[in-house]
Specification:
The protein is mainly alpha-helical and 46 residues long. Helix content is 61%, strand content 0%. The longest helix is centred in the middle third of the chain and has 23 residues.
Length: 46
């Protein structure tokens, strides 16, 4: 009997999950740096 050697890719792979988390962390860092940077939008609102 032949075995089916093809694997089904089901669900989210670990690599895709790690890449997504890294991208979100970069975006959060840029956002925080923009708000706390030279513009100081947080301080202007107070």
């Amino acid at each position: 009997m032949k075995r089916n050697t093809k694997r089904k890719n089901e669900g989210i792979t670990l690599i895709a999950l790690v890449i997504t988390i890294i991208v979100l962390l970069i975006l959060a860092g840029v956002t925080i740096a923009t708000l706390m940077g030279d513009n100081r939008n947080i301080n202007k609102s107070e």
